[in-house]
From TrEMBL:
GO terms for molecular function: transmembrane transporter activity. The chain crosses the membrane at residues 22-46, 58-81, 93-115, 121-139, 144-165, 177-197, 209-227, 233-252, 273-296, 308-326, 338-357, 363-386, 407-427, 439-461. It comes from Parasphingopyxis marina. It comes from the Bacteria. This is MFS transporter.
Length: 475
């Protein structure tokens, strides 16, 4: 696909919402909602789960198990769509997510509940990955930025509504009802897929990429475990080992006959590789604010859990607004927004490093807004560049890999900031000294990742500009 164009090569909202495209668009938005809201609602109800199932000690494993499922499933979503067909794959993902939700809802003990969370993670990772593949298959390139902006809006809505839904169920002593609610929605997703998704793929052969999947699984397990174990030496061992395994998976995949990702995914000098590096690094840098800011703000500003959660939600709110505001930008500004957006992320993290634990709420809001604005400015346009530069044989794996790279970055970042928080003594309970140190380090440690993401984004833009110039010369 050509990178050239004018502002008119971005579809208008009324075209996207026309009668012939609205059903498929709505299905994609439902898939995005299922993953976004499931994760956010579950965070709110976990204290009730722990009390009911005597599972406080297993909080971290419930989250880690879900995360392992999400990343590994997302990594193979594109390959699976090519292998068995997009429609069947999406139906299966909805049914699996429903089964995982039902297991968590009916779980008599914490072990059964965690098993359900792992299956939920696999189902959710596939649902989101297949939604990205559907975007690539169903919609022409000029619709992509609008669709990704709308998906961002769904995340923003989930950020505000998710905790409320979870709080209502938890306060009513009915936390299991949350999972039954999402099981029904997952079944609806599977049913709608049968009628709305074309029978794409399912004809490509090739062996199952077991080796790459095993390496990715081990890498994510090590990273997720680092956020749960308490021994510092073990944490410092698990994180680099996990990152090395993820890097090794890309290298192996590039040379494999049956691949999970595009061949250039592990080549950071390529457009696809630069985009994937941007996703991974920016998410790894920003995740610490989401994880630790609520607890820090409750201590420093005396906020309730819900109030602190909504302060942190400023990131998602501004992310949504920024993505919608710039969705109609032309090619020149799309590239500029990618660079500007990725630079805003480390700038916001630097501001938060100095003021998150200060009690100065307006500056905390500003830092969160800068990060959210950064993601909103760059994400949709980077996604469009990736999908526009995938060849016909790598469309499914390349588009499905977008979510996998983001989730892998989040897993790596969560493990690293978890170590930083533990070193400060925050894990032993908040006090003035540990909160001050944790407030600085959980954000400061993300600044280098944010800068790496910005450099990768500059490389991405330079490659896109060179490709456009080459296309112009040939024409």
């Amino acid at each position: 696909m050509s990178m050239t164009g004018t502002p008119e090569d971005t579809a208008r909202w009324r075209e996207l919402l026309s009668a012939d495209r609205l059903p498929a668009f709505a299905l994609i938005m439902l898939g995005v909602w299922l993953q976004a809201a499931d994760a956010l609602v579950t965070t709110t109800i976990m204290p009730s789960v722990g009390a009911d199932l005597d599972g406080y000690a297993w909080f971290g494993w419930a989250t880690s198990g879900y995360l392992v499922g999400v990343v590994v499933a997302g990594a193979c979503a594109g390959w699976l769509a090519d292998r068995i067909g997009l429609r069947r794959a999406m139906v299966g993902s909805g049914l699996l997510l429903a089964a995982g939700c039902a297991m968590s809802a009916a779980g008599p003990g914490i072990g059964f509940f965690i098993a359900g969370r792992v299956i939920q993670g696999i189902g959710a990772g596939w649902v989101l990955g297949f939604c990205f593949v559907t975007i690539h298959v169903v919609f022409p390139e000029r619709f992509l930025v609008r669709i990704f902006a709308a998906a961002t809006a769904i995340w923003g809505v989930a950020t505000f509504i998710g905790p409320l839904i979870g709080g209502l169920f938890a306060d009513g002593g009915a936390w299991r009802g949350v999972f039954w609610l999402f099981a029904v929605q997952a079944l609806l997703f599977a049913w709608a897929t049968i009628h709305l998704v074309p029978a794409h793929g399912g004809e490509q052969g090739g062996r199952v990429p077991f080796f790459q999947l095993i390496i990715i699984t081990l890498g994510i397990v090590l990273l997720s475990s680092a956020g749960v174990v308490t021994a510092a030496w073990l944490q410092w061992t698990l994180v680099p080992a996990g990152v090395v395994l993820l890097t090794l998976a890309l290298i192996v995949d590039r040379k494999a006959e049956s691949r999970l990702f595009p061949r250039q995914a592990g080549n950071f000098g390529s457009l696809i590789g630069a985009a994937y590096a941007t996703y991974f690094a920016t998410m790894a840098g920003a995740i610490g604010f989401s994880i630790y800011a609520p607890a820090i703000l409750q201590f420093t500003n005396g906020l309730s859990a819900l109030e602190a959660g909504y302060v942190v939600a400023i990131e998602a709110a501004v992310w949504t607004v920024a993505a919608l505001l710039v969705a109609g930008s032309g090619p020149q500004w799309r590239r500029r927004w990618i660079v500007i957006g990725t630079l805003l992320i480390p700038m916001g993290l630097l501001l938060l490093a100095f003021f998150l634990a200060s009690g100065d709420l307006p500056l905390v809001l500003l830092g969160g807004a800068m990060m959210g604005g950064g993601f909103g400015l760059y994400s949709s346009f980077a996604n469009r560049l990736v999908m526009a530069n995938l060849d016909e044989h790598e469309g499914a794996t390349g588009s499905g890999g977008i979510a996998a790279m983001r989730n892998a970055g989040g897993a790596a970042g969560a493990a690293i900031v978890g170590i930083a928080a533990n070193v400060t003594g925050f894990a032993d309970g908040p006090n003035a000294q540990s909160v001050a140190a944790a407030g600085f380090w959980v954000c400061a440690i993300g600044v280098p990742f944010g800068l790496i993401g910005a450099l990768a984004a500059m490389r991405l833009v330079a490659l896109a500009r060179a490709e456009q110039s080459g296309a112009a010369v040939k024409s």
